[in-house]
Design brief:
The chain is about 40% helix and about 20% strand. The protein is of the alpha/beta class. It has one domain: P-loop containing nucleotide triphosphate hydrolases (Rossmann fold). Strands 3-2-4-5-1-6-7 form a seven-stranded mixed sheet, with helices on both faces. Strand 2, helix 2 and strand 3 (about 65-70) form a beta-alpha-beta unit. Helix 5 (about 105-120) runs parallel beside helix 6 (about 140-160). It is globular, with a radius of gyration of 15 Å. It is an enzyme of class 2 (transferase). One of its GO terms (biological process) is cobalamin biosynthetic process. It holds the Pfam family CobU.
Length: about 180
């Protein structure tokens, strides 16, 4: 039975730092809706440490969660979601990293496609992303470009979003829209 006190608006953006609790909060939001729920994962298990992180995330999501891996075609995964099904995307900064490291990618076109898919999502959509703009200025050009691209992506998504939540130390703070 859905929890009316945790109704998910059409588009929610959940931001936070590493290990802030943002993914757990997003899962909590989505799980209040009638399942099954769709989890769109953008991570790739390139090494043992990342494979372990992915396994821990998957173990936290028993059925009725369905997982779709979309490290690159995030817009397509959102568009293919069954109408009305709550969708959680985790996380945008991993997707952005994957796109930036793909030398063939047209990042501006992919971001525009993602924004269009989010605006037309067929059901409640919760997006998780790392807020990377609170730290020091990165030392190298690629890291600075990543920080800047992430900041611009977050601003554009926040404009589209009905709700934006910042999670710090496991505490969600609603910075746009109604509190949950």
């Amino acid at each position: 039975m859905p929890d009316e006190t945790r109704a998910v608006p059409r588009l929610t953006l959940v931001l936070g730092g590493a290990r802030s609790g943002k993914s757990a909060h997003a899962e909590w939001l989505v799980s209040a809706q009638a399942g099954p729920w769709l989890y769109v994962a953008t991570a790739q298990g390139w090494d043992d440490e990342m494979r372990e992180r992915i396994a821990l995330h998957r173990a936290r999501r028993p059925p009725p969660w369905e997982t779709v891996d979309a490290p690159r075609d995030l817009a397509g995964a959102i568009r293919r979601a069954p109408p009305g099904r709550p969708v959680l995307v985790d996380c945008l900064t991993l997707w952005l990293t994957n796109a930036m490291l793909d030398e063939e990618a047209d990042l501006a076109a992919e971001v525009a496609d993602l924004l269009a898919a989010c605006a037309a999502a067929p059901g409640p959509l919760v997006l998780v992303s790392n807020e990377v703009g609170f730290g020091i200025v990165p030392e190298n050009a690629l890291a600075r470009r990543f920080r800047d691209e992430a900041g611009r992506l977050h601003q554009r998504l926040a404009t589209l979003a009905d709700r934006v939540v910042l999670v710090v130390a496991g505490l969600p703070m609603t910075i746009k829209g109604e509190t949950q």
